[in-house]
Design goal:
There is one protein chain. With 371 residues, the protein is α/β, with parallel strands linked by helices. The longest helix has 18 residues. The chain has a single domain, classed as Ribokinase (UDP-N-acetylmuramoyl-L-alanine:D-glutamate ligase, 3-Layer(aba) Sandwich), CATH 3.40.1190.20. α11 crosses α12. The chain contains 12 helices and 14 strands. A 9-stranded mixed β-sheet has the order 6-5-1-9-10-11-12-13-14, with helices on both faces. Strands 2, 3, 4, 7 and 8 form a 5-stranded mixed β-sheet that branches. Helices cover 37% and strands 24% of the residues.
């Protein structure tokens, strides 16, 4: 029994989460969840390739020859860091405006599966991801040329400056995620900083501005550095939080000469925090998470799932839980646990938890009653 987690679960049960306002953008994907077939028994039954390394061996054997690998689609679902994060936060009865690449001139039908407390605005066509899932991770193959239309100019043309200023003036959370897949995201941030921030009120309790780079390995170091240093300028109006998974954190540290694979997670977190001078850096490996807030390092173990039902979107669910903890006024350690509980529920149930399901899951976690 883990008394800390049990007590946090009880604390959540005693709280009445207020109706938070949120603005989230700017990507949008249709995700096709896929298994790679290993052996097929008949037209309806097969065993899948269990690990990425097993698939790599099969591909390597085909070098200089050829091979056929069957991909079996399981489902088509809402994809993209923003929509998945939005879906998770919407389970807590928040009032959310989602602005992104959901289809033009008409929003794609898959996004109408978003909860009714989410207002949708679209200014570009969505991307498409083939997500091949394995027990030890996933391979995501994206088709994303449509995201070239995710620009500041198209945002203002669709939404209007007055509406954008109104939304950001009243919000508790502004999340701008999936930087790596949106070519003009840095330009969009820069123009929001120049044109929109001066029109926003400066509040004593600043709203959270959450950013997720989403695997920036394919982008040039100069682009990454420019985007990251730009985030400092949002601190005048927002509490700025950068979220990274373990790979992203180590990639960023390596690109900026801040550390390498021999560095500890704490050293990586601290070096990125010191370099960027943001309010918080949060990093979420598969089995734990850590953050630095006000110069203090926090780390916690999570409820690792050895055989998850769904992993695509797990990181976005962690992010939603972590920032929701901040919005509830929880401390950094509590917010880490809320993030890991949200992700832990999601990978076991292939859906995001409601607030009651989240507190119940955390109670079971604390009592050692989850696998």
């Amino acid at each position: 029994m883990n008394n800390y987690i049990v007590n946090l679960a009880e604390k959540l049960k005693s709280m009445e989460p207020k109706n938070k306002k949120m603005v989230i953008g700017f990507d949008g994907f249709i995700d096709e969840i896929i298994h790679a077939v290993d052996k097929r028994q008949d037209s309806n039954t097969f065993t899948r390739i269990e690990t990425i390394s097993d698939l790599a061996k099969r591909i390597e054997k085909a070098s200089g020859l050829s091979t056929n690998i069957e991909l079996y689609p399981l489902q088509q679902k809402i994809g993209g860091n923003g929509p998945i994060m939005c879906n998770a936060l919407a389970k807590h009865d928040a009032s959310i405006t989602y602005i992104g690449a959901l289809g033009v001139p008409n929003i794609h039908e898959v996004f109408y599966g978003m909860p009714k407390n989410v207002e949708l605005y679209s200014f570009a066509n969505s991307g498409h991801t083939d997500a091949i899932e394995f027990n030890d991770g996933k391979l995501m193959f994206g088709k994303m040329s449509s995201l070239n239309d995710v620009t500041y100019e198209n945002l203002i043309k669709t939404l209007g400056m007055e509406k954008l200023v109104s939304l950001l003036s009243e919000t508790d959370l502004f999340a701008a995620v999936n930087w790596s897949m949106i070519p003009y995201m840095t330009d969009l941030w820069e123009k929001i900083n120049l044109n929109v921030l001066p029109l926003l009120p400066i509040k004593e309790k600043k709203p959270v501005f959450f950013i997720d780079l989403a695997d920036p390995e394919k982008r040039e170091v100069s682009e990454i550095k420019k985007a990251l240093l730009l985030l400092q300028q949002f601190k005048s109006h927002f509490y700025v939080v950068l979220g990274l998974n373990k790979k992203e954190a180590y990639d960023i540290a390596s690109m900026l000469s801040l550390g390498d694979m021999n560095s500890s997670l704490q050293e990586i977190n601290q070096s990125i925090y010191d370099y960027l001078n943001l309010d918080s850096i949060v990093i979420h490996p598969v089995d734990k998470s850590c953050t630095i807030v006000d110069g203090i390092y926090y780390e916690a173990k999570g409820p690792f799932a050895s055989k998850p039902k769904l992993t695509t979107g797990a990181g976005d669910n962690f992010n939603s839980g972590f920032v929701f903890g901040l919005l509830l006024g929880l401390d950094p350690m509590e917010s880490l646990h809320l993030g890991m509980a949200t992700s832990g529920y999601y990978v076991r149930n292939a859906m995001s938890p409601t607030y009651n399901e989240l507190s119940e899951f955390m109670l079971n976690w604390g009592n050692g009653n989850i696998e």
